[in-house]
Design a protein that fits this description.
Oligomer: homodimer
Distance between the termini of chain A: 20 Å
Strand content of chain A: 5-15%
Number of helices of chain A: 18
Helix content of chain A: 40-55%
């Protein structure tokens, strides 16, 4: 444990996570990041109830926070919904601005490329050719393809032959935007990257074999294939299994879109075209398609399949559905979503080391530090409370709602391995 | 059966019903009305999915239409939601304007008073003292009581000692407004009333004893007390029992507010104060009370109990909840709810006699005759389709919706006692 006067030269590592759920790939990335940066304190900014792919997290944020604490993270702060359910650029700007604000001086991300210098040079090169790139993107968009596809094609043609990042890889895209956000913020955050490991790896400390499977594959086994937790023990640390078991006991099921479908269906059915058009990301007449199609489908999966077009990625449509479910308007986002200026830091959990770091930083913070949602009346925080309530709505008995207002950060003693709250 | 050229002098009786569900009291009223008016054809204007007390009907409109046809009614037309879920005055204006439009020349209603002359003289007396009465009502409202209470008190004091109608009785209130609507419309409809019979009565045609119980008492037995249909056979004709059995098989349960509660809860949770304030009948800061209370309750019953104040009747609050559920705005009602000018006549069911009457009248009708919701694109009709879809939402399997667009009127042969569609 460190004292207040030692804070200056400490390595404060920031990482950006969803932990949906926490698995061995995350553990590998966490340990490799700490090793690489020689971090003294690790801060994770974690998405709350709804995630970047436009899906509800399979477990609530508190359950996922407990996983993160047991994995060794010192401070977990919430990435607000206004950033968490967004394309890579806004998502990254929000996450990096939070890590910058809390006082991190390192940021380490997983990437397919694995070479941080390549990220930095690519950001600089793109900046230099920004207008040319934008022209190309617009050209490609006119042919009716989705934005990510247009971007990737434009990028390839503008930088053909150049030694530049492969931006068709999902983690490279995020890493690129993290490095870009650092540049835009003129932050002292130093970027690092760890090459993503897909193969299986052996953890010396543990006796049984661990396999890295993607969170997507794990969720598929749990939700679509309805496999019991025992069937996937080799992909998940024991504390993740334990936490998922608790989630199942409390909520009766893991969280997935199908259970929210009745509310989405109800919301679309009872909306006028004008009301749908006011929803964030509802563009180009999508409101009429939705109103026409909603009476013809009987599941979320069916809805996705009929709404999907070449123009929009699956993820883009799912994000729209989250915004419809939460009734998030364009004007709300215009007013409150300032990507590089997170309005507050909300603590979800901390180790004792994390708590000491926070109290040493407290007075220097330029934005409010929130430990209880009831402390501060801010529209972005209210949205996160609403997101959490809606996330829990189909699951909790007697129509009760996740108690977000009263919840306090989870405290964990890493040495003793026990929760203090 | 009558021929077209006989239509002129026929007695075309109109009645206003909810049939929630059809019981012996309704049968008594129907037979007494036909006897009194010597009706050749009986037309019932029946509320669709949501009723005057601000509740969903326990069975869908098609099921209740089949009950009405088997009871001997010739034509069932739908009272649109814009009228059906309203205070007595708008409800009555809408119903009477429909019976007037379809060509009824008699209207017979049940009442506690039982003397139609008293209704007519009371309407005239109130008209003569309208401004005095309104002043009194405003005085009473200032003390914080509900409108019906203020009206009743004002009425008593203005007409003290006069031989005037007892307007504290619910059926007298409706009858009063029917007669008033006839006067406002300058309609040729001739009013009749049948005194409501509460005691048990014996039907000569049938061998077993029949008891008149109120629809409220019957619903209470079915829903709150969860009694089987067999337990209430003596209150209901066999066709009502049969139809209710069918409803149970198709929907799994009778319709009641608790099953709609999750949608109402979701809608309030995700509404801004401004959005709630735009809802019809959301007045005087109720939006803030609702937003505050909605996170604290876990059932419709609980919600009603905490929202209820001296200022608003139970019914008034329930109606507001229907409007919130259906997302019906003040501006929608201002634009489309013209109480004395129903925009169309929608046929839900008809006997062969009814069908002949309709084809004889068809060319003289001044508003459209709708037999299929898909035929006509009108916002009031769209609202009825939505109301029907939402009515069915918590009940139908696989999130399917009541097929309102394709539905056609139910045809019934009274002589053979068989349905033709």
């Amino acid at each position: 444990m460190f004292k207040k006067d030692e804070v200056g030269p400490l390595n404060i590592l920031g990482i950006v996570v969803e932990y949906n759920p926490f698995h061995y790939g995350h553990l590998y990335h966490l340990r490799a990041s700490i090793e690489k940066t020689k971090a003294d304190v690790t801060v994770a900014v974690m998405s709350g109830s709804f995630l970047q792919r436009g899906e509800p997290a399979i477990a609530d944020k508190w359950t996922r926070t407990r996983m993160a604490l047991q994995a060794g993270i010192d401070i977990i702060i919430e990435l607000p919904y206004i950033y968490s359910t967004q394309k890579a650029e806004i998502f990254s700007d929000g996450a990096v601005s939070l890590l910058h604000s809390i006082g991190c001086n390192q940021l380490c991300f997983g990437s397919e490329a694995g070479d941080v210098a390549l990220f930095q040079s690519s950001v600089d090169k793109v900046d230099a050719k920004e207008s040319e790139l934008n022209r190309e993107i617009q050209q490609h968009l006119k042919s009716g393809v989705s934005y990510p596809r247009a971007f990737s094609a434009a990028f390839q043609s503008v930088f053909e032959g150049d030694n530049i990042l492969d931006l068709s890889q999902p983690n490279n895209i995020l890493g690129y935007h993290y490095v870009k956000a650092i540049k835009k913020l003129e932050s002292k955050l130093k970027p690092y990257t760890v090459k993503r490991e897909k193969a299986q790896y052996h953890d010396k400390e543990l006796t049984r074999e661990h396999i890295i499977a993607s969170a997507t594959a794990i969720r598929k086994k749990l939700i679509e294939e309805k496999q019991p937790l025992e069937a996937i023990y080799q992909y998940l640390p024991s504390y993740t299994l334990q936490e998922l078991k608790g989630q199942l006991q409390r909520w009766g099921s893991f969280v997935h879109w199908e259970k929210h479908f009745p509310y989405l269906q109800y919301r679309i059915l009872t909306s006028s075209p004008e009301e749908l058009r006011n929803i964030y990301e509802c563009e180009e007449g999508l409101e009429y398609r939705l109103l026409k199609l909603i009476t013809k489908v009987s599941s979320f999966q069916e809805l996705m399949e009929v709404v999907k077009t070449k123009r929009y990625t699956w993820t883009r449509i799912q994000r729209l559905f989250v915004h419809i479910l939460l009734n998030t308007t364009k004007s709300f986002m215009e007013e409150y979503c300032k990507p590089l200026e997170a309005p507050y830091i909300r603590i979800l959990g901390m180790s004792e080391e994390g708590r000491h770091f926070l109290s040493s930083r407290k007075k220097e913070l330029e934005i409010p530090l929130i430990t209880r949602a009831s402390e501060w009346d801010h529209p972005v925080l209210q949205k996160d409370v609403l997101a959490s309530q809606l996330h829990s709505l189909p699951y909790l008995k007697n129509h009760s709602l996740q108690e977000e207002f009263k919840a306090i950060p989870i405290r964990y003693d890493k040495i003793k391995g026990i929760f203090l709250t």
